[in-house]
Amino acid sequence: MSISIGQSLTDFVASATNNTEFSLSAHQGKFVVLYFYPKDATPGCTTEGHDFNALLTEFDKLNCSVFGVSRDSIKKHENFKAKQGYQFELISDEDEALCQLFDVIKLKKLYGKEYLGIDRSTFIIDPQGKLIKEWRSVKVPQHAQLVLDYLTGLPTA
After folding, report:
1. Which of the residues 31, 46, 54, 135 has an alpha carbon 20 to 30 A from that of 149?
2. Catalytic pick among 32, 45, 64, 118
3. What is the pLDDT of residues 92-134, one digit of tens each?
4. pLDDT recorded at residue 72
């Protein structure tokens, strides 16, 4: 069962970098951006991470935490994060629980071969735990700025 816009998410916990566990409940009262990407250390995923990293201060000002999610292991995530200097945590979804919840696993083709992979997607969860925005089949250029612009345009309480 996947989540759709306007639905509240039940709390979930996932392993993250820096010896942490991500839980949605720990971020209650804040916006959360979850961006799903196919694989650590690939060109598009590296660029997307740098773009979000470059705007982290702006996301912080909007009471928003950013997390990258892929099926890579924590060990791979730690290496990728350290090498790229990311200042946000990466969530490991090796069992694909989050991928299933957000329905981001899609049939893809590469060099004529079909495989199941993550469709690059981004989701915003509001401070009450409700999914308020999604982008699917994301193109990396300017995407992080687009997410920030959406948050900036939201009415403030």
Report:
1. 46
2. 45
3. 999 999 999 999 999 888 788 898 889 999 999 999 999 999 9
4. 96
Any idea which of 56-65, 91-100, 148-157 has the lowest mean pLDDT? 148-157
In 127-140, which positions are buried (b, 16+ CB within 10 angstroms) versus exposed (e)? eebebbbbbeebeb
Nearest-angstrom CA–CA distance, 4 and 2: 7
pTM over 0.90: yes
Residue 39: both structure tokens together: 């694989």
Q: Is 45 a catalytic residue?
A: yes
Give domain limits for the chain.
13-152
